[in-house]
Design brief:
Layout: H1 2-25, E1 33-38, E2 45-48, E3 51-55, H2 56-62, E4 64-66, E5 69-76, E6 83-89, E7 96-99
Parallel strand pairs: 1-7
Antiparallel strand pairs: 1-4, 2-3, 2-5, 5-6
């Protein structure tokens, strides 16, 4: 009866070692940094790195999770100059709060 117990013990040890190896190979996703826009141009649109996110009002309510790196935030509205900001975030950074004020294009 000792042989099956030893075989089970060996199998469990192998399984545990494979689990640890697999866990070491799987990298965790980097932590994101929260981007919060502030302003009153609810009809404007927001893009990050040339990717449309939605209306300013939507982004204002939901915020944006930025992965580590450099990002271009653009806010646009018909009849106003575009607003652009370059930000760089690192893993573990506190939330980034950006006040946005669009300037009307003169007639």
């Amino acid at each position: 009866m000792a042989a099956p117990s030893r075989s089970l013990s060996s199998a469990l040890s192998t399984l545990a070692a494979l689990s640890l190896l697999l866990a070491a190979c799987v990298s965790a996703a980097p932590k994101t940094t929260s981007l919060r826009l502030k302003g009153k141009d609810y009809e404007a649109t927001v893009t990050v790195d040339d990717q449309y996110l939605g209306s300013f009002a939507y982004v204002l309510r939901k915020g944006v999770a930025l992965p580590p790196g450099k990002h271009r935030i653009t806010v646009q509205r018909l009849g106003y100059f575009p607003w652009d900001k370059l930000v760089e975030v690192r893993e573990g950074d506190p939330p980034v709060n950006l006040p946005v004020e669009l300037v009307k294009i003169p007639d």
